[in-house]
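Q: what does this look like with BIS(adenosine)-5'-tetraphosphate bound?
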Amino acid sequence: MLNIVLFGPPGAGKGTQAEFLISSYELIHLSTGDLLRSEIAAGSGLGMEAKAYMDKGELVPDEVVIGMIENKLEANKNAKGFIFDGFPRTTDQAKALDVLLNRLGTPITAMLSLEVEKQELIDRLLSRGKNSGRADDQDKSIIENRISVYNEKTSPLIEYYKKQDKYYGIDGMGSIEDIAGRLKEIIEKQN
Ligand code: B4P
């Protein structure tokens, strides 16, 4: 199985590049952001709880997102592989993912980390916010909080995957096609 963690700060292009990887490699796309937004759209209790965190640019509690990923892995045991988009975002989430994948007998293949300058992240998210209706993309101070939360709680995962020899840093600046080509080059070297 090909199990990819697509990593990077908010606005780095994770969701954008995930679309390309799913079609190229027939992987199951697991985006915790998308799963949470579906819960909000459905008006579920979980969605309402998550919305309070997301609208402020804070992380949703670990147990909520880990539970969602566990359900999806169980439901897709025969997949060719998974692309984890926006998950894990904390060390506890990364440890939980390793346990869940061990149970399926299939580890993470690689962590692909998109590197993008802060001002470009802010510009991309504000630009998406004009059309997306996403509350967390509308306000510069919320976007800056999301980037701070990334720096504090999520970026330590780079060390976590470096220790497992699975980290790959990728230049996330430039055209979507060029970045997709950089990701493909690394994925083709796996196995
Ligand atoms: P996510 O949905 O994961 O959103 P994101 O970090 O903003 O990244 P996204 O994938 O959407 O954006 P992309 O870079 O593709 O998270 C939202 C919130 O959900 C979090 O703040 C948190 O509250 C919660 N959450 C999610 N997962 C969680 C977890 N595991 N634990 C706890 N909480 C969790 O694209 C951004 C924009 O840039 C797009 O408009 C795109 O078109 C554009 N773009 C992309 N590539 C570009 C390029 N090369 N050039 C120009 N523009 C580009």
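The chain has a mean pLDDT of 96. Strands lie at 2-7, 28-31, 81-85, 110-115, 167-171.
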